[in-house]
Amino acid sequence: MANHSNGNSNHTESSFKIPPIKFTKLFINGDFVDSVSGKTLDTIDPRTGEVITKVSLGDAEDIDLAVKAARQAFDHGPWPRMSGSERGLIMLKFADLIEKNADELAALDAVNGGKVFALCKVIDVAEASKALRYYAGAADKIHGTVLKLSKGLHGYTLREPIGVVGSIIPWNFPTVMFFMKTAPALAAGCTIVLKPAEQTPLSALYYAHLAKLAGVPDGVLNVVNGHGHTTGAAISSHMDIDKVTFTGSTEVGRKIMTAAAASNLKPVSLELGGKSPLLIFDDADIDQAAEIAFRALFFNKGEICVASSRVFVQEGIYEKIEKKLIEKAKATVVGDPFDPKVHQGPQTDKKQFEKILSYIELGKREGATLLTGGNRVGQKGYYIEPTIFANVKDDMTIAREEIFGPVMSLMKFRTMEEVIKRANDTTYGLAAGIITKNLNVANTVSRSIRAGVIWINCYTAFDVDCPYGGYKMSGFGRDYGLDALNQYLQTKSVVTPVVDSPWY
């Protein structure tokens, strides 16, 4: 059993004082406003299952108001008409404000999403300001090309902002996802209507406030809290939204594509589910491999799309890796994410908590061997022990479906050819990892696995300059890198006759 302390224990009390919640309304056209219906949504603390606060509950009418504000700001406002350097300066100021408020922002995601406070501050909030700075630097480097056309014609291309962007983000990384979507869109000169996950709206509202302080004009960035089946659906089907970007489940991604096609045929980019494999070869350093494998799955309590939930270990070192992983799981401290001794906080909400426990029971029933974990921690809150299964067959449900929690499936393999085939035997294709000292093996395997990002001797090594997205049912389009910026731009070709030119 993992070491644990939960929200019921005084041991988890930390000296950090959670700040009061400042922003709970919708943010539309530069102001915090109540929803049209006046309805509210309970925001839950996953440490206890109790209500933190109530936030305004947006619906289709509120999305309409936000889209009108965004459309006005795009068609007639200053943001798309500023030079790239002017937009970049405002984005840099936005990044400065995030860094100044890092403690409070990290606390919101910790209390609202169960994320470990210290890690959220140094990883998630830091990545937010990095993303803004990166795309601020790109904003004045959006160039078209001069075309060598047929005799008598001159042509060139313009790169123009796509327009009003609808962004729907998930609950596992509220801060990172907010800026993964908004930073390149802002740099491109777009305006945005963003729906945070209903479970974790608090940091998004705070970022809207900081955007206004930084000088982002009214209507450029709007945040509407709400449910996916109503508020999210209104974004997907809205006739005056020019593009939708979404991170979440494959099931919901399908619905968004259908709604986008049935409305105004708006382009869609989707980053969806994953069942990512990690391949550990016999020549790997045992300690390094075990450390990478453990963090690749249990980071952020397993609530990460790229989690390496299928760990394939070559038979020559399997027993050693298995032993190391069990030791690490048992040494993990599960408890209040504000406690500096804690490694793993609660799952984000009750629904996800119960879903994970149901998968654990299913793994047992289907014949996998439970090596460690498998239980809830305490009687209050949504805490689950780090859980590892062995003797997992490729056709078992826990090896096929995305669990999105702290549950690892360990499997043996013999040859490189065998494990490549097994790694690719999935409907998903988001990420994969390879641990080996053999360059030929690394090169062959990385080119053979059908996934959007391959990590060699590392995992979850994200960088804002590195495009991120999936193959197959893990979606299409890319976040991060200049690939992401291009998703928020249209290419316009301009052609004119050239008369009596001395050369063509």
Can you walk me through this structure?
The protein has 504 residues and is of the alpha/beta class. The chain contains 15 helices and 22 strands. It is 38% helix and 20% strand. Helix 1 (60-75) runs parallel beside helix 7, helix 2 packs antiparallel against helix 5 (174-188) and helix 3 (102-113) packs antiparallel against helix 6. The strands form six sheets. It has a seven-stranded mixed sheet, with helices on both faces. It is globular, with a radius of gyration of 24 Å.
Question: Which short descriptors sum up this protein?
Answer:
504 residues, alpha/beta, seven-stranded mixed beta sheet, six-stranded mixed beta sheet, 15 helices, 22 strands, globular
Question: Which helices and strands, and how do they pair?
Answer:
Blueprint: E1 26-28, E2 31-33, E3 40-45, E4 50-56, H1 60-75, H2 84-100, H3 102-113, H4 117-138, E5 146-147, E6 153-161, E7 164-168, H5 174-188, E8 191-195, H6 202-214, E9 221-223, H7 228-237, E10 243-247, H8 250-262, E11 268-271, E12 277-280, H9 286-298, E13 310-314, H10 318-331, H11 350-365, E14 369-372, E15 387-390, H12 397-400, E16 407-413, H13 416-423, E17 428-429, E18 431-435, H14 439-448, E19 453-456, E20 471-472, E21 475-476, H15 481-486, E22 489-497
Parallel strand pairs: 7-8, 7-10, 8-9, 10-11, 12-13, 12-18, 13-16, 15-16, 18-19
Antiparallel strand pairs: 1-2, 3-4, 5-6, 6-22, 11-21, 14-15, 17-20
